[in-house]
Design brief:
Strand order of the largest sheet: 4-3-6-1-8-9
Number of helices: 1
Structural class: mainly beta
Length: about 400
């Protein structure tokens, strides 16, 4: 018997296959001692409490799911519930609606109630093509952690309007979403939390742009490996941070082999490993940030930052006068076309500061150093052998 047409407005998640008369279903895999209370409907009018068994949802005959779970959908990284989507070969499944209808199907929810709230909700749902809306403005620790991890058919990310974040809230959220091409143009939160965006788009190999990041303070690990191995990335949104915490941008664009122009970095304060490996292996990168402004360096802050950027032509201006442990180690290692470096440090470079930092650069070039500098070190730990030296 054909299902009755559903009403236009219903506060629930709507699952539907994309191919007519092809098999598609949704069920819930539950590892939660406090299992969520959910209801399903085929017409948006009559609702039945769900026992999590498979519900068919071919094209034109959707299934609706909603719930009342004011204490959170999941509450623990070891105790969680997630959807399992199954579709016939060549078919995918869309999910429309507001994800917070799983928390309260009658009222809008703007603040997520618990940590881990939607942890792994669609984890490795390889048939998911469209994601539901995520309208919460205040989110919690780990709330969207790995939410769409491995969703290889997902093409668009929902808007992410949250302005109050939790630790690890977006960690690995879209990791391995290899079909993802459409993401928000801005992540608006003014204040970041530990690891909040770490590995968020890791391995999204179809992604061509990154969002604007307006927060002025980059916290510990907040952008670590955020776009790692996004091999199609060519346009990078502005990074506004003027202060960078420990490893905040470490490996942020590592392996982005299509990126040609790096964003400007306005940070005047850096911490240990802040920009380490930030552009490591960006083999198409020709233009670096014009200057790395921080006057005071930190251990390993720029270590391996441009390692193996084989198309890079000119270094950023490096105005810091005093070096610290590992600050420039391997910074330009393997930059085979690099022929212009401006570095104004006054202290004597050594292996603890500039270990192999210019190994493998162009055979000839120009090195600009401070007129007040007294050091003369040449070779892979100093000024490349055979280069012209000028002062300013």
């Amino acid at each position: 018997m054909a299902r009755a047409a559903a009403p236009v407005q219903v506060r629930a998640l709507k699952f539907e296959g994309t191919v007519a008369r092809a098999a598609a279903s949704v069920e819930l895999t539950n590892n939660n001692s406090n299992a969520p209370v959910l209801y399903y409907s085929f017409d948006g009018r009559s609702w039945t409490q769900w026992d999590y068994s498979a519900l068919s949802c071919p094209k034109g005959a959707p299934v609706y799911i909603r719930g009342y779970n004011p204490n959170g959908f999941s509450t623990n990284g070891n105790l969680f519930s997630r959807f399992t989507l199954t579709a016939a070969t060549g078919n995918t499944i869309t999910c429309d609606g507001d994800v917070t209808s799983l928390l309260d199907y009658e009222n809008e929810v703007t603040t997520l109630p618990t940590n881990y709230c939607f942890y792994r909700l669609f984890y490795q749902c390889t048939t998911l093509e469209k994601a539901p809306a995520l309208p919460a403005l205040t989110v919690t620790n780990y709330c969207y952690n790995q939410m769409f991890y491995g969703c290889t058919s997902l093409t668009a990310a929902p808007a992410l309007p949250a302005t109050t974040l939790g630790n690890n809230c977006y960690y690995q959220m879209f990791e391995g979403c290899t079909s993802l091409t459409d993401i928000p143009t801005i992540l608006p939160a003014p204040t970041l939390m530990s690891s909040c965006y770490s590995r968020m788009f890791y391995g999204c190999t179809s992604l061509t742009y990154s969002p604007e990041l307006p927060a002025l303070t980059a916290t510990i690990n907040c952008y670590t490996s955020m776009f790692y191995n996004c091999r199609s990335l060519v346009n990078v949104g502005a990074i506004r941070a003027t202060s960078m915490g420990y490893a905040s941008c470490q490996g942020m664009f590592e392996g982005c082999t299509s990126l040609q122009t790096a964003p400007e970095l306005p940070a005047t304060t850096v911490n240990s490993s802040s920009c380490a490996r930030m552009f490591y292996g960006c083999t198409a990168l020709r233009t670096a940030p014009s200057v790395l402004l921080a006057p005071t360096l930190a251990n390993g802050c720029y270590g391996e930052m441009f390692r193996n950027c084989t198309s890079l032509l000119r270094s950023p201006r490096l105005p810091a006068e005093t070096l610290v442990t590992s600050c420039y180690n391997y910074m330009f290692y393997g930059c085979s076309q690099l022929s212009e470096i401006t570095a104004l440090f006054l202290t004597v470079p050594g292996t603890s500061y500039t270990n192999s930092w210019v190994q493998g650069v162009a055979a000839s070039g120009t090195f600009t150093k401070s007129a007040s500098a007294t050091w003369q070190t040449t070779g892979v730990n100093g000024i490349p052998s055979g280069w012209t030296i000028i002062t300013e």
